Amino acid sequence: MNQPFLTLEESAQVDAALLSSHEKFLTRLTISSLRLLLHIAQTYQVPVEQLTPAQIIAWFEQDSKIRREQGPDAAFLKWEWREE
User: Fold this and answer.
1) Contact at 8 Å (CB) between 48 and 38?
2) Which of 33, 41, 70, 71 could disulfide-link 48, Cβ–Cβ 3.0 to 4.6 Å?
3) For the chain, what are the domain ranges?
């Protein structure tokens, strides 16, 4: 993804909002989730409203497979997860 899930300006707007820390976290998560859902919908060439849970799960499975087989830089999502 070329653009971040949350820009610095958007993060500053969330920080300035009259919300609790928990509400700010949920707001950031919601904005980021919207961006990801829009990307997934574009991948399937459907409106975001028509995405199904099965499509979202399949997309995550595919992105995970790309990460395992081609490395983290090839995957869409850039994160590191450590299981304990």
Assistant:
1) yes
2) 41
3) 8-74
